[in-house]
Amino acid sequence: MEIAAFEAFAKLLAEPGLTEEYDHVVLDTAPTGHTLRLLQLPAAWDTFLDNNERGSSCLGPLAGLKSRQALYAATVDTLKDPN
């Protein structure tokens, strides 16, 4: 279930068209430590996908994650944007 929530979170950040009609988007998250971990996932997965030589992860084959790499990279870019 957490991966589905992460996917929705990443899309909200990476695809501006989904939120452009709103002034604010509120994410009701778990306590600070869990939220910080969630915010670090795009960067961690991006590096993991580039460097993994086994072809799999705890989530299954990398092919599925590899297809989401552009989404994760866009999410990281959005999180780094000071605006």
Distance from first to last alpha carbon: 30 Å
Please tally the helical runs, counting DSSP H or I stretches of 4 or more residues.
Answer: 4
From the spread of the alpha carbons, the general shape counts as: globular
Strand order of the largest sheet: 1-2
Give helix % range.
Answer: 55-70%
Class from helix and strand fractions: mainly alpha
Assembly type of the chains comes to single chain
Radius of gyration: 13 Å
Uncertain runs with pLDDT below 50, 5 residues or more? none
SSE arrangement:
Elements: H1 2-14, H2 32-51, E1 56-57, E2 60-61, H3 62-66, H4 69-80
Helix pairs in contact: 1-4, 2-4
Walk me through what this model shows.
Helix 1 crosses helix 4 and helix 2 crosses helix 4 (69-80). This protein starts with a helix and ends with a helix. Strands 1-2 form a two-stranded antiparallel ribbon. The chain is mostly helical and 83 residues long. Strand 1 and strand 2 (60-61) form a beta hairpin. The mean pLDDT is 74. It is globular. It has helices at residues 2-14, 32-51, 62-66, 69-80, and strands spanning 56-57, 60-61. The protein is built from four helices and two strands; from the N terminus they run H-H-E-E-H-H.
Features:
single chain, 60% helix, 5% strand, mainly alpha, two-stranded antiparallel sheet, globular, 4 helices, 83 residues
Quick summary:
60% of the residues lie in helices and 5% in strands. The protein is mainly alpha-helical and 83 residues long.
